[in-house]
Amino acid sequence: MSALGVEGWPTPATERPVVLEARGLSVDYAGHEGAVRAVHDVDLVLRRGEVLGLAGESGSGKSTLAYAMTRLLRAPGLISGGQVTFHDGRPPEEGGVGSVSLLDAEPDQLRRLRWSEIAIVFQSALHALNPVISIEAQLTDVLAAHHRGATRSERAERAADLLALVGINRDRLRSYPHELSGGMRQRVMIAMALALDPQVVIMDEPTTALDVVTQREILDEITSLRDRLDFSVLFITHDLSLLIELADSIAVMYGGRIVEQGAAKEIYDSPRHPYTVGLVSSFPSMHGARRRLSGIPGSPPDLRNPPPGCAFHPRCPFSDEQCRSQQPALVPVPRLGPETGPGRLAACWHQQEAGVTDELAGVKGGPRR
Length: 369
Known about the structure:
The structure is a single chain. This protein has helices at about 60-70, 105-115, 125-130, 135-145, 150-165, 180-195, 210-230, 240-245, 265-270, 275-280, 320-325, 355-365, and strands spanning about 20-30, 35-45, 50-55, 75-85, 100, 120, 200-205, 230-235, 250-255, 255-265, 330, 345. By secondary structure, it is α/β, with parallel strands linked by helices. It folds into two domains: about 15-245, P-loop containing nucleotide triphosphate hydrolases (Rossmann fold, 3-Layer(aba) Sandwich), CATH 3.40.50.300; about 255-365, no CATH class. The strands form two sheets. It has an eight-stranded mixed beta sheet, with helices on both faces. A four-stranded antiparallel beta sheet has the order 2-1-4-5, with helices on one face.
């Protein structure tokens, strides 16, 4: 199955069934001066076979959102509202469990779902892997915990197959994490996540600290595996440029909120939120003439004392009194041209004005791909 459409861009998967969704999800962190709201009333939908990119600067709430959805959030984090539902695509005769509320699930039920249906590739494989246990032991531990009927030799063979799946020779099974390169460790983490054929894989900054060549290899590997195995991916990154070719759709977070969401090509070609414009303008185009990168002035908001109104207004070149006093809702983007497709959302008072599209495009500058 290929997710690529016209000119090599991933196509939206709006017609596919939903596999994981969050509705009204909010997360607080307890502190000495009271609770800090890190995620605000977020709705997020991941469809079967889709790669959904979650982009934003450090501290925007991306990882907190993902860990809250899987109930892996550690204290002092607290889910203060909302629902998260996993929709099993398998029929009951094949072990399907239907729709499950992850926030209401009992610990035993959560344990069965984690890794077997929803797996995670954590940040920094060097820290996520146990440094004193061989790669084989770490892979077979996952299999032993969920496939108790498998023999030791069957688990070892499966571990070798998993390494081959991500392009690593089986003679590396007896290696320890420190004996592998950064890219190989990341591939081991991906192999571990795929050990039980999950329906959803959450990848939290899987290419952080890797060189650009290794990043490209990892992204190509993820695309190839997704096309072959048809799992869904929630890909978290601060680098919007990684998502342009990988993701079907992109959600942009700022200050704990989704501020724009839509098809990847639309997000790149015609961003409707000034923060998204800044993210797009922060990386160089791979084609056309060279241009000056504009970046985003200022710093992300202090969530202990967030600014009133739109959280982005202190850094926004278009802010006015309404932006400084009223929080805009995430609403459908008006159809201002043929490039705007269904399901496009933005939280900006100015995106609804017809003349803003050209103004934002002028800020972005540079050639289109």
